[in-house]
Amino acid sequence: MPIEEGMIVDGIVANITKFGAFVQLSGGKTGLVHISEIADTYIKDINSYLKEKQAVRVKVLNIDRDGKINLSIKQAQTIKKSTKPAEIDWQQEFKKNQSGSFEDRLSKFMKESEERLQEFMKNRESKRSGGYSRKGDIAQR
Length: 141
Prior knowledge:
It is a single chain. By secondary structure, this protein is an alpha+beta fold. The protein folds into two domains: 8-80, CATH 2.40.50.140; 90-140. It contains four helices and five strands. It has helices spanning 73-80, 90-97, 102-130, 134-140; strands spanning 8-16, 20-25, 30-34, 55-63, 69-72. Strand 4 and strand 5 (69-72) form a beta hairpin. The longest helix has 29 residues, at 102-130.
């Protein structure tokens, strides 16, 4: 089967260089995976991502006139991932958050807010009184 642009094929890492990895494809053809097409993150050392003789799945990006094949590992992986969002039962989520009447929840919220405000004010006052004041420093000079 001939290799064409857009295909996703399996291969084996034949050689690793500073700028990418050469992958042996079926039919005896070899293609290059540039360092920027290995992962979505910055890669300082390719050897931390790939090893020689490792099996990889690649996408054929293009084949130029000279027969050079450009490949991508990260684009082959993104195609495998499901693009369908997770199903959420909103009715069940709503019921889970309904732990009492509105008045009960409002009362709880107000109590927690008041406690947080008191804690904030206490911390603020301790920072103010714990330090020194400029007026005191000037008076001592």
